[in-house]
Design brief:
2 helices, 5 strands, single chain
Length: about 70
């Protein structure tokens, strides 16, 4: 099946852009939990015990670790 949450667009100057997300990225894990859908991504980010999330995106066939924080 499909793995990940596809990022269709990232607004210029947005928090997501400042933290390194790009249009076309596929978020495949949040805090070491595999993500299969956008709903799972939202749920996992919302349930994080801290204000910082470690995510991994698939970009140009490479895994890229990013840190998201409020």
């Amino acid at each position: 099946g499909t793995v990940g949450a596809y990022i269709d667009a990232v607004a210029s100057g947005s928090p997501a852009e400042r933290r390194g997300l790009r249009a076309g990225d596929v978020i495949i894990s949040v805090n070491r939990v595999q993500i299969n859908t956008a709903f799972e991504m939202t749920r996992q980010l919302g349930s994080a015990q801290t204000r910082t999330a470690q995510i991994v995106v698939l970009r140009n066939n490479s895994f890229v670790p990013l840190t998201l924080s409020e």
